[in-house]
């Protein structure tokens, strides 16, 4: 009698070998480690010439930086596409529309501007491989990309602030407050324990990604935007040298907000 295959085994992700063409060790090291956590094998090279040579070994997908020391990544993309239909995702600090358009027109399958998180990159890799048919789409396994936690709790009321996680709606003094998805996630995280100080690293790990690539100034920008939209900087106060806390203005001694 045949023994049924365990469901977990059926759901294991397909092994993929990625070619990473990236000269910056500060990006390549953590990125290789992060992708390895999701079961990807990453071969990394530092130059366009080395990338073109390694591509001859037919990796499953190429992650291509544009700012390479020996040649422009756009030229690498053009050469790769001329010889193979291999999926290519550009990962670069060039975020201008003209660069994105050029990369996509030269044959890149997707384009990610730094900074970005590993979870988003993994999602892009899966989307590209499904779209291009490079690998059969399979359900993610137990070590696959974790989905963001979904809070099923009742709406939360903090003074005049009404926060509904289920509908992702925020109201202040009875009026709707329009937040970006990341601003909403940041507010939800701080509101889980009002008054508690959360370190910058805790916030980045929870709201962005433990393997986020980019300056933490992006956190300051989102905090500033939240303060502006909530109409009072006292909603989010700064614990100098540590992080941030969410407080109802007037309910606690004010902290210096930046």
Automatic annotation (TrEMBL):
It holds the Pfam family Response_reg. Residues 17-129 form the Response regulatory domain. The modification 4-aspartylphosphate is found at residue 65. Transmembrane segments: none annotated. Residues 153-248 form the OmpR/PhoB-type domain. SUPFAM superfamilies: C-terminal effector domain of the bipartite response regulators, CheY-like. Keywords: DNA-binding, Phosphoprotein, Transcription, Transcription regulation. This is Sensory transduction protein RegX3. The keyword S-adenosyl-L-methionine does not apply. InterPro entries: CheY-like_superfamily (IPR011006), OmpR/PhoB-type_DNA-bd (IPR001867), Sig_transdc_resp-reg_C-effctor (IPR016032), Sig_transdc_resp-reg_receiver (IPR001789), WalR-like (IPR039420), WH-like_DNA-bd_sf (IPR036388). Signal peptide: none annotated. Residues 153-248 bind DNA.
